[in-house]
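[job 4471] stage=fold_predict status=RUNNING
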Amino acid sequence: MDPMSAQIICQDLRLWDAYRQADLPQEAADMFETGSRAWRAALEEDAEPALREIAQEHMGDVDAAADAMIPWCQENTESAHEGDPW
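[job 4471] inference complete, writing structure tokens
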């Protein structure tokens, strides 16, 4: 397992969550890309096993996978950027 995988995936999920909360139509493509990137990274063989399991459970539904991974990230990682909501 790559020890940085969870941190990288969770940073993408923080950005995805910020896009979602902003609810701006012009950000929809960025939100989709960010969520997809986090989901694909979580499916990698060397990803954090808990995140990989969640991603596999929500195969094909990026938004549901992102929503389900956020609580794990909130509990197990810290933001690399000051001011992030979680």
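[job 4471] summary: Helices lie at 5-22, 28-43, 49-57, 62-76.
[job 4471] exit 0
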